[in-house]
Write a structure and sequence with these properties.
This protein is α/β, with parallel strands linked by helices and 812 residues long. The structure holds beta-D-glucopyranose. Beta-D-glucopyranose binds at residues 66, 162, 490-491, 501, 520, 609, 657, 736-737.
Length: 812
């Protein structure tokens, strides 16, 4: 494919305008109304707004790290409100706050540059990721800041991202003292007060949630965040987002609260009781439950029927809008115990008095649990209740499934060296269910039991048969062989498309194998917005480069820009994945994927390094914003819908990541997740399994961490036996960036880094972004017999087959 994205014309293109409008629509669908004491939507009489808070002008439209999208411009909350016709009465205060923020940013950039000068760019980059710039706490407000505006809005902002976890401290998970007193002051001073939460994940608002006013979770809504917010506040859009994760009353309510963030070992003691499953089992009241969200409309749900045909259940529900404003409702169906989401659906826009029948479908297999003793998915004998709900705490029993004896649905084999963990105990309830509820008999004869064979004789691609060891190795190691010493810059290792994350070698073009260009994900395409070209080549390291430009001291930026042509590559920042999941609308997710696919086609990008599908296990994980949910079903379905959207574009594929258990950022390359096979399969792998089975993603990326003592990048059971043989994945697997490089002081680590030949042996086909060392180590391992040529040819075959699917080389 060819890069048609880079243009010499700096004007905003029609595509940019069109995609910004779509981004606004998508964002408005996923924002969640948490509180509303008769304030929203604003009446037509609201014309002036007193706007405060660090996110008012400097709105965060996404998170940091490789998941950040470099945009030309964006619609802040201030701009969005003005676009919608409101007058902002606090311009002077916003100007003062902006100046404060800019000053703090300059100081921060200076510190990063100083580190680069003293310790080198890699350490500077890691420091930047480890402690991203946080908006400063603004000077406290007093009564003199308030005025006669018709309404007041306070925008509370947080940002986080790759390379660091959040902290349970004021200014991060908790509110700072100034924020709390300012919010209280404003909520009392104005008749109409709205708190906007411009955050990547949960914050502790327990102390202020009951103030008069409204609270809207806007997350980080992408390029058009401000327009989406204005649309909801003015009533043009009726909020219909529902939470994709539980918000706790206190951070300590999380079962993994205390142990989270250990640099070496993470103990998954809560097993499968993650998120709402835990809150339900431990009878802990959350602040806002999973699936929760208010509307301007008022819905009533009526259960109609529950049926079973073969192994497929279908539950019908009538939804009626009894309110005066048109809106959409999300209907959820849970099974228990433990409480688990089994199906959901969203209505169309229902007008006053309008009704719609929503049909919720799921398969009997969705009721099974993983039994380690039998290495099988089993539906337990007894009664399984089904609950209809609008969030995880509003459940109403609607039917009971009677299972006369244990039914085995799928036979596997032990794969994950299950560890004996000291688990947190909860007592499972001895419940009897209302005798009037519908009973459905599920029998073994309803189920076709699947038995997996695990075979090691996979065929070699014809082209791979003809390639030399050196050519095979070149294909299986990414192209960034030298950059920043021995280490390539994360998220910026492509020379074909500046700012893209990486690419495969161009040295095989002579034998008909082109380069595969890859860009991050997941909130859009991450490339450099402004590039320089000379004699058909891109000049690297210009001053404006989003990474080099910041971390390198000016004297280290060698780029000579004389005689270069300036070009622009503008992509759309979509809402963060969590916000998209909060829509609970798979058409929205597919639309997002479709938009990204269109930009990929234009840019000549073959692989999008997303969707990111890790489970939001703890609210402090720095990358939660890139992930969909704490629930594996919602995660898997969202990823499948996005994948369908992207892969309907010619030559475009996704890369589902990070397989698996990348649930913390602290020391992520060397962190060992200790977990039972049951929890792994039921929660942490389940989303990947659903996505692979439903949408056939062309590639997958392993995580940086270890699971039960083995790096996922080197785990043959995970990559070959589970991913390929159990779930039917037929694409290529790649490593996360730099996992084979031993960064920093190795003696300080409890675990070693990933081995390059070990990747190939495990069926991890492509080592990214690639280093000369990876090539050398693979060739050495072939030489001394630790790796066979057959294993290398198999990995090359996976890559070549993926390229055939992407029509990069001819189909055979
Ligand atoms: C991240 C990946 C990303 C890659 C390329 C890594 O640091 O963990 O999610 O795709 O960089 O930018």
């Amino acid at each position: 494919m060819k890069n048609r994205l880079a243009t010499q014309n700096p004007a905003v293109s029609d595509r940019e305008k069109r995609h910004s409008r779509i981004a606004a629509e998508l964002a408005a669908e996923g924002m969640v109304l948490l509180e509303n004491k008769g304030i929203l939507p604003f009446r037509a009489s609201v014309k002036t707004i007193a706007l405060f808070g660090s996110g008012a002008r400097r709105t965060h439209i996404g998170g940091t790290g490789s998941g950040e999208v470099n945009v030309r411009d964006f619609i802040s909350i201030e701009k969005g409100l003005e676009n919608a016709g409101y007058t902002i009465s606090t311009k002077a205060i916003l100007g003062r706050d902006e100046a404060n923020t800019d000053k703090a940013k300059q100081v921060y950039d200076g510190q990063i540059r100083a580190i680069a000068k003293e310790k080198g760019p890699l350490i500077a980059l890691l420091s930047k990721m480890g402690k991203p710039f946080m908006p400063p706490i603004l000077p406290p407000l007093d009564k003199s800041a308030t005025d006669n505006a018709d309404a007041c809005i306070y925008v509370l902002s947080r940002v986080c991202g790759e390379g660091a976890d959040r902290r349970n401290e004021p200014g991060d998970f908790q509110l700072s003292e100034t924020e709390t007193t300012d919010i209280k002051l404003l909520a009392q001073a104005y008749e109409r007060f709205v708190l906007l939460l411009n955050v990547g994940g949960a914050v502790d608002i327990t102390e202020i949630r009951n103030l008069p006013g409204a609270v809207l979770l806007i997350n980080q809504g992408g390029i058009s965040t401000g327009d989406a917010v204005a649309s909801i506040l003015s009533g043009k859009t009726c909020p219909s987002g529902h939470l994709a994760a539980t918000w706790p009353k206190r951070y300590e309510d999380w079962p993994c609260a205390k142990e989270f963030g250990d640099p070496s070992d993470t103990w998954y003691r809560e097993g499968s009781l993650v998120g709402y499953r835990w809150f339900d089992a431990s009878k802990t009241d959350p602040l806002y439950p999973f699936g929760y969200g208010l509307s301007y409309a008022n819905f009533e749900l009526r259960f109609l029927s529950a049926e079973l045909h073969a192994d497929q259940f279908s539950v019908s529900v009538m939804v009626a809008n009894m309110g005066s404003i048109a809106g959409k409702e999300v209907v959820q169906l849970y099974s228990g115990y433990p409480k688990s989401l089994v199906a959901f659906g969203k209505t169309k826009l229902l007008k006053l008095g309008e009704t719609q029948t929503v049909s919720l479908r799921f398969s009997a297999r969705d009721l099974s649990v993983y039994d380690e003793g039998q290495s099988a998915w089993v539906i337990r004998s007894g009664e399984i209740p089904l609950y209809l709900a609008t969030h995880a705490n509003s459940t109403k029993l609607c039917a009971v499934i009677k299972v006369e004896r244990d039914i085995i649905c799928e036979k596997c084999r032990p794969l994950f060296r299950s560890e004996q963990l000291r688990v947190i105990k909860t007592s499972s309830p001895e419940e009897t269910y209302d005798g009037n509820a519908i009973r459905i008999d599920l029998k073994a004869s309803n189920i076709n039991c699947v038995s997996h064979g695990y075979s090691d004789d996979e065929s070699i691609d014809e082209k791979a048969k003809t390639m030399s060891k050196e050519e095979l190795t070149a294909l299986c190691v990414g192209a960034a062989r030298i950059s920043m010493g021995d280490f390539s810059v994360i998220g910026n290792a492509s020379s074909e498309l500046p700012g893209a994350a990486g690419e495969t070698t161009s040295s095989l073009e002579t034998i008909g194998i082109p380069t595969i260009t890859m860009a991050d994900g997941p909130a859009g395409l991450r490339v450099n917005p402004k590039i320089y070209e000379k004699d058909g080549l891109y000049i690297k390291n210009p001053v404006e480069d989003p990474i080099f430009g910041l971390i390198l001291p000016p004297e280290m930026v060698k780029a000579d820009l004389s005689g270069t042509v300036t070009k622009y590559q503008y992509c759309t920042a979509l809402p963060i994945a969590t916000l998209l999941a909060q829509t609970w609308d798979m058409d929205v997710l597919e639309k997002a994927g479709n938009l990204i696919g269109a930009e990929m086609e234009e840019a000549g990008i073959s692989l999008w390094l997303a969707p990111a599908m890790n489970i939001q296990r703890n609210p402090l994980c720095g990358r939660n914003y890139e992930y969909y949910s704490e629930d594996p079903l919602l995660t898997g379905l969202c990823a499948a819908a996005v994948t369908k959207g992207v892969q309907q574009h010619k030559g475009c594929g996704v890369c589902i990541k990070h397989l698996a258990c990348n649930n913390q950022e602290t020391n992520r390359n060397y962190s060992n997740s200790h977990i039972s096979e049951k929890a792994l399969r039921e929660i942490y792998l389940r989303g990947f399994e659903i996505c692979v089975k439903l949408s056939s993603p062309v590639s997958a990326m392993t995580s940086m961490n270890l699971i039960n003592g083995i790096h996922t990048a080197n785990d043959r059971d995970l990559l070959t036996h589970a991913l390929r043989q159990e779930w039917g994945f037929d694409g290529a697997v790649m490593t996360d960036w730099g996992v084979t490089v031993d960064i920093g002081d190795q003696s300080a680590q409890r675990y070693l880094c990933t081995s390059a030949p070990g990747c190939i042996k495990a069926g991890n086909d492509l080592i990214m972004p690639g280093a000369q060392r990876d090539v050398d180590r693979i060739l050495e391992a072939l030489h001394d017999g630790r790796l066979t040529e057959h294993e290398l040819r198999l990995s090359a075959s996976h890559i070549l087959r993926m390229m055939r699917r992407l029509e990069m080389i001819t189909k055979k």
